[in-house]
From TrEMBL:
It comes from Alexandrium catenella (Red tide dinoflagellate). Keywords: Membrane, Transmembrane, Transmembrane helix. The chain crosses the membrane at residues 6-32, 44-66, 322-346. This is Uncharacterized protein.
Length: 371
């Protein structure tokens, strides 16, 4: 309400410019990765069913639009939360303090509601910092050939970089891997996928794990390494995005939705929209996690006893266990958020903790007696 008309126009213009620019960059990256993807997978699939390119592309565009809308509504939700905390006469923070003090996270009772929202939003920056560290080459390392590796008999398809012109040596002499800032070996394709996921390019995630699964079938001797790379990258993506962003946003938004339902005796449509988008995004992350888990189980079950495989298998198993733990956290978060959302329509005061419906009047009376 305190935003001037001029400031509103500026912010709206920024959104009109920024979102199309990000979308164009995303689909440039998608075009770059789709060619090797279809060369290996031999086709496109939507929800596990063979599909034509146009249907797959529409599904990718829809998923990208869903991610952008989720980011936009999360930002609007945070702005509304900060505004309500600053405006005099708002009762939202008072009821929040009373309810949160009797919950499992009672230590947050002394924290402002807007501060909780800002903290949850700041945590989303972690999904950018870690991929940047993983995709940045360490200084002083061996030179890297920034070009597409040619297949046998298809050397003319090599794509030259503006920075490094690819010479004509044997393929075996080209180096497509580098040591990143955290000390692990990464190839150029993995770096691109990590940066794309960090930037919220959800359409790129349609290629994972379909590409490494098909690649493992073509080159079984590389299956363990492929599974280890994609599962470890998935753990980082799911942990930083689904857990630290989507899960926290769902818990915060369901709580605010219930508080508004109690205070205003109506249901906020914008909060419902934001909550629905967050839950849909979390459900997509869970779907990706199940695919990664299935791929890991298949590779570990078929792995042989070749020399050097045992260490890779232990590493893959460790990341698989972490993935299973993250999946459990996501399922619990989704179930708890759904229960709080349903309670907003069922409970008399619209609020619910694990112990049952919350009697806000009794809580406030108890606080008054203590004071």
């Amino acid at each position: 309400r305190s935003l001037s008309p001029a400031a509103a126009v500026v912010l709206g213009s920024l959104l009109v410019v920024i979102f199309p620019v990000f979308t164009c960059i995303e689909f440039v990256c998608l075009r770059y990765t789709t060619i090797p993807f279809v060369q290996v997978t031999k086709g496109f699939q939507v929800m596990g069913v063979a599909s034509p390119f146009w249907l797959w592309f529409c599904f990718a565009a829809l998923q990208s639009l869903l991610m952008r809308a989720d980011m936009l509504t999360d930002g609007r939700f945070l702005a509304e939360l900060v505004r309500q905390d600053q405006c005099p006469g708002e009762q939202l923070s008072d009821v929040w303090q009373a309810v949160i003090g009797e919950s499992m996270v009672s230590f947050l009772a002394g924290v402002k509601l807007s501060q909780v929202g800002l903290a949850a939003y700041v945590l989303t920056l972690a999904q950018c910092i870690w991929p940047l560290l993983q995709s940045t080459p360490r200084c002083g390392g061996p030179p890297v050939d920034y070009c597409v590796q040619p297949s046998e008999g298809q050397r003319s398809l090599r794509v030259q970089s503006a920075l490094t012109a690819c010479p004509e040596p044997d393929v075996e002499q080209l180096n497509f891997r580098f040591t990143n800032l955290v000390g692990t070996q990464v190839n150029l394709g993995e770096a691109l996928m990590m940066l794309g996921e960090a930037a919220g390019m959800s359409s790129l995630q349609l290629q994972s794990p379909a590409y490494p699964v098909a690649k493992a079938e073509l080159e079984p001797e590389k299956a363990v390494g492929l599974a280890d790379a994609v599962v470890s990258r998935g753990v980082v993506s799911i942990g930083l995005v689904a857990v630290l962003e989507n899960s926290l946003q769902i818990q915060l938004q369901t709580s605010i939705f219930a508080l508004k339902a109690f205070l205003l005796h109506r249901y906020d449509v914008l909060t419902i929209t934001s909550l629905a988008l967050s839950m849909a995004t979390l459900a997509l992350k869970l779907k990706d996690a199940f695919k990664l888990l299935s791929f890991s189980n298949k590779v570990r079950a078929g792995a042989g006893e070749e020399a050097g495989q045992s260490e890779k298998l232990r590493h893959l198993l460790r990341y698989t266990r972490i993935l299973q733990l993250l999946m459990l956290l996501l399922l619990l978060s989704l179930a708890y958020g759904a229960a709080k959302f349903a309670a907003a329509f069922i409970c008399e005061d619209s609020l619910w903790n694990l112990t049952g419906c919350v009697d806000v009047a009794a809580l406030k009376a108890g606080k008054g007696q203590q004071g």
